[in-house]
Amino acid sequence: MRGTKLILMEVGNVKFLDSLNYFPMPLTALPKAFDLKELKKGYFPHLFNTLAHQNYLGPIPALDFYDPDH
Fold it and tell me: Where are the domains of the chain?
């Protein structure tokens, strides 16, 4: 911690870093700041992310798992 700011939090072997301590800009501004080709956030099949699918190996999940109507 720095004052009341949380810099790093560790839970088990997982580390959470506050990127604002290292990059004084939103994450969406990083490609432009580093002169990279503009990138867009991708899509993730959140509805597929269940305990039953944690070790899934196979084709890309069906479109319904991406919750396209939300």
Answer: 1-39, 40-70
Pairing of strands 14-17, 8-11: antiparallel
Banded pLDDT at 66 (limits 50, 70, 90): very high
pTM of the predicted structure, to 2 decimals: 0.45
Q: Which amino acid is at 29?
A: A
DSSP state of 41: -
| Helix, strand, coil share of the chain (percent; to 5) | 30, 15, 55
Tokens of 22: 């290292």
Q: In this predicted model, what pLDDT tens digit does every residue of 14-45 receive, in sequence order?
A: 999 887 788 888 877 888 888 988 777 778 99
